[in-house]
TrEMBL record:
It comes from Chitinophaga terrae. The lineage of its organism: Bacteria, Pseudomonadati, Bacteroidota, Chitinophagia, Chitinophagales. It comes from the Bacteria. This is Uncharacterized protein.
Length: 52
C-alpha cells in the first residue's frame, strides 16, 4: 500500500524572503529569441501530429 504524502511545510523567516526574492527575479527574465523560435518550432511539430 502507498504511504501518505506529507504536507508541504510553510516557509517562514529568511527562507520565505529568499524564496520571494528568487521568484521576483525570475519574473523579469525574458527568453532569448533563439529559445522562443525553438519553442514555436516544437509547438508546430506537436500541433501537426496531435489529433483531438
Amino acid at each position: 500500500m502507498a504511504r501518505r504524502i506529507k504536507e508541504t511545510p510553510v516557509l517562514k523567516g529568511r527562507d520565505a524572503g529568499k524564496f520571494l526574492a528568487e521568484i521576483n527575479k525570475a519574473k523579469n527574465v525574458k527568453p532569448s529569441p533563439e529559445v522562443l523560435n525553438e519553442i514555436k518550432k516544437n509547438y508546430e511539430k506537436l500541433k501537426d501530429i496531435a489529433t483531438f
